[in-house]
Design a protein that fits this description.
about 30% strand; 8 strands; two-stranded antiparallel sheet; six-stranded antiparallel beta sheet; about 140 residues; elongated; alpha+beta; 2 helices
Length: about 140
């Protein structure tokens, strides 16, 4: 890979890193009902409370009652399929009902910030390390 391509990718990564940090900070002030980007009636993206959510309903599912059951264990409305997955900072739920589907994927901002920040900070620390090893004589050169 040519050096200029890597430099451009590094700069773009750093710009996205800064944008995500800003979005992370202001996500605590967004309203879950109104502050979202709608791509279609069944696909929305929103940033709320330090997390980014991808979902298909009016608001992301955050763990609430979705069905009621009687004494015999019958649920109303009936759930045909239910999938749930939790990992630190990642939350996924999928419910299929006879008439519709409900799904949500929520990620902590930590994951995208870490991913896009890894390249620029790794290159920066390698550059600083090279300067320290060469007593500053290579300060004007970027890491290969």
């Amino acid at each position: 890979m040519k050096r200029w391509v890597l430099n451009i990718i590094t700069i773009l990564s750093f710009v996205v890193f800064i944008a995500l940090l800003v979005l992370w900070a202001i996500s605590y002030h967004f309203d879950i009902w109104t502050d979202k980007i709608t791509f279609s009636p069944q696909f929305h993206i929103g940033a709320f409370d330090g997390r980014i959510s991808f979902y298909n309903d009016e608001v992301p599912y955050r763990g609430s009652i979705i069905a009621l059951s009687d004494g015999k264990g019958n649920t109303y409305p009936s759930i045909l399929r239910e999938i749930g997955w939790n990992f630190p900072g990642i939350y996924y739920r999928y419910f299929r009902f006879p008439t519709h589907t409900l799904w949500t994927l929520t990620l902590s901002f930590f994951y995208p910030v870490f991913l896009v920040g890894f390249l620029p900070f790794t290159r920066f620390f390698c550059w600083v390390h090279r300067i320290l090893l060469t007593d500053g004589s290579q300060a004007d050169k970027i890491v290969d």
